[in-house]
Write a structure and sequence with these properties.
The protein is an alpha/beta fold. The protein is built from 23 helices and 14 strands.
Length: 475
């Protein structure tokens, strides 16, 4: 499957809360953890086997070791191997920045949990056992299903033939939930080899029952590389075998997304993030006075910009501050009405609870929480005008300038329409000196700064948003 097509389709599933991801040990290896084969390397040696000759039957290696030693010895190896990461993992970092609410993994480690917390997922429900699956946490925004268990309860980890053979009885709830979600959500499998007999058996049962009505899913997998082989015959053999394997996965509705290098995984998910970021915009701005702009011109610009953002499929957040929020919202609502769309899909009003047009009653902690939420929920921050009255004098808004600093801190895309003046102009001037961080703006800085043509300004903002959305995987 073409990578760009996958990016667009999976992004749409995330947007509609129909996406799930299944992460295998191939991703945790990048944190410094061992692969399943390396986990059992010394185990194999201890029982007189060569792990390189047992790659396709690692389950039996674990079982033979348990037969010879005991489960406690195997548990100790699991705990010692997965309790502490050794290095930063860019794959987990980018994946957990996405609003994917359903995550499945066969990994025993805690990397997914830790990166979710690092990237702002404040309520995570972790399902490790049948009992935990049965308990619903209504406050969680992300659920992790640990299909094969967790190193903290190593005695219940799925690793031996016994564990796999009794899986359906001991982890029934996992099978039931996964079966349901494979029908209702679109999964992407990464770092996963599909050697798990329980998952394959589950997929085969679903194929028999639902026949051609199985939902499409994706596997990201690296193509066979010729330079990894000593002989042409070995290369051709594995190339044929991989293609046969991928063709077979189609029976289960799983499409292969072939990549050339493992680093392509990071680029793909970065592109998905860009795609999603370009659809969530927060408009930072206020205007007690339009300066050199006439009232009619300013209102027309904001109205047309609001309409264009809807046409681009953007959900717009606004603090609904005087001179910008209401005028922009008018354009958004007009377009939503014409097209018969849902208001909540395109407009979110996040106004501070002012009393008597004052925010003096709001505590600094609450204010910070509120402003953090406004910025953090968006991918692009659009700055327009930005002024306020201080001691009776119109000056650039301190709040809007603070929102600029906050946007930079959170790594947001920033689009300041400097031609509207005040804080937006100051922000554009500052950005013009930092071209390396804002390359997507460089071709448009002149128009953003000086243009008096409303259509040209609206078109330019639109082009920038689309350039961010389409800064997609090019390999």
């Amino acid at each position: 499957m073409e990578i760009k097509k996958f990016i667009n389709e999976y992004s749409e599933n995330i947007k509609n809360d129909k996406a799930a991801i299944f992460i295998g040990s191939g991703i945790s290896v990048n944190s410094g953890f061992v692969s399943w084969k390396d986990l059992l390397r010394n185990v194999a040696s201890d029982i007189g086997l060569n792990i390189e000759k047992e790659t396709h039957d690692l389950i039996s290696v674990a079982q033979y070791y348990q037969n010879k030693e005991n489960r406690a010895a195997l548990n100790k190896i699991i705990v010692n191997s997965f309790s502490k990461p050794k290095k930063f993992n860019k794959y987990f970092d980018i994946i957990t920045k996405l609003p994917i609410k359903t995550i499945w993994t066969t990994n025993y480690d805690h990397e997914i949990e830790e990166y979710l917390k690092k990237n702002g997922h404040d309520s995570i429900d972790i399902k490790k056992t049948n009992r935990s699956v049965a308990v619903e946490n209504n406050n969680s925004n992300t659920i992790i299903y640990k299909f094969h268990g967790d190193y903290e309860i190593a005695d219940e980890a799925v690793i031996t033939k016994d564990d796999f053979e009794t899986f359906s009885g001991k982890r029934t709830a996992f099978e039931a939930i996964l079966k349901s979600q494979l029908l209702s959500k679109t999964f992407v499998f990464i770092g996963y080899s599909f050697n798990d007999p329980n998952l394959l058996f589950l997929l085969s049962k679903m194929r028999i029952v639902y026949e051609q009505h199985i939902r499409d899913h994706y596997l990201i997998i690296r193509e066979i590389k010729k330079n990894c082989y000593d002989t042409e015959n070995d290369y051709q053999y594995d190339l044929i075998k991989q293609q046969l394997f991928l063709d077979d996965l189609k029976r289960y509705g799983i499409k292969a997304v072939l990549i050339k290098e493992y680093d392509d995984i990071y680029e793909i998910f970065s592109s998905i993030k860009n795609n999603l970021d370009s659809r969530k915009i927060f408009v930072a701005g206020s205007s007690r006075d339009y300066g050199e702009w006439t009232l009619e011109k300013a209102r027309y610009f904001l109205f047309e910009l609001g309409r264009r953002l809807v046409e681009l499929g953007c959900q717009v957040g606004t603090g609904y501050i005087e001179g910008v929020g209401p005028e922009l919202s008018n354009g958004i609502l007009n377009c939503v009405s014409e097209k018969g769309l849902s208001i909540s899909d395109y407009l979110i009003i996040k106004r501070l609870p002012l009393i008597g047009n004052s925010d003096e009653h709001i505590s600094p902690v609450v204010r910070e929480m509120y402003q953090h939420n406004m910025i953090n929920d968006a991918g692009i921050i659009l700055f327009l005008f930005g002024n306020n009255r201080y001691d009776g004098i119109i000056k650039p808004s301190k709040t809007v300038l603070e929102e600029f600093e906050r946007s930079k801190k959170y790594g947001k895309y920033i689009i300041p329409v400097g031609a509207t003046g005040y804080a937006a102009s100051i922000i554009l001037d500052a950005i013009s000196k930092e071209n390396s961080e804002f390359k997507y703006l460089v071709p448009h800085i002149g128009t953003l700064k000086d243009s008096e043509n409303i259509k040209k300004l609206v078109d330019t903002v639109s082009e920038i948003i689309l350039s961010i959305r389409n800064s997609s995987f090019e390999k």
